[in-house]
Specification:
Layout: H1 2-23, H2 29-49, H3 55-66, E1 70-71, E2 83-84, H4 85-96, H5 118-121, H6 139-149
Parallel strand pairs: 1-2
Length: 163
């Protein structure tokens, strides 16, 4: 990761960001969505490796992400054109906590309601006590997200999906 960060910080990252931001609004509507999502993915790489980004790029990524379609639950692959709700909130929380030189772990659990991870709250993000599928950093987040989560929250039924 340190090697990738050095390469990005040498100017390669800034050139990539400038190139793909310039292409954002080109082409038909499908191409524009794909091009904007490409910039978001590039931004996620910057955050993941802790590469240097300007404040303007961070803010632009936030606006792009907030303008990208998101769904809270499952979407058919043919209709899958954006974020899942928890992933969007995790990305926004990562941008809020972005610091050049500090890699962000997107693979660890994050709160389904606010997107905060262990490095934001200073402790492991606990799982839902009922289904053990979702994570919530505190009771307020769990209560706030309950109208969405209750549709899929089920206690362990004693059988495995790995049949």
């Amino acid at each position: 990761m340190a090697t990738a960060r050095r390469i990005f910080d040498s100017g390669v990252g800034a050139r990539l960001m400038a190139k793909y931001r310039a292409l954002e609004n080109s082409g038909d509507s499908w191409s524009v969505l794909r091009n904007k999502y490409t910039v978001i993915i590039l931004g996620a790489i910057f955050v993941r490796i802790g590469a240097q980004m300007t404040k303007a790029d961070v803010e632009h990524l936030r606006q792009l992400a907030l303008g990208t379609p998101s769904r809270e639950g499952y979407a058919l692959p043919i209709c899958d054109d954006g974020f899942r709700g928890p992933g969007l909130r995790q990305f926004i929380a990562a941008l809020d906590g972005y610091q050049a030189g500090t890699p962000h772990d997107f693979q660890g659990p994050s709160c389904f309601a606010c997107g905060k991870a262990k490095n934001h709250i200073g402790k492991e993000v606990p799982r839902c006590g009922r289904c053990h599928f979702a994570w919530f950093c505190n009771k307020d987040c769990q209560r706030g997200y309950w109208p969405i989560h209750k549709r899929v929250c089920r206690a362990d039924r004693g059988w495995s999906l790995n049949v």
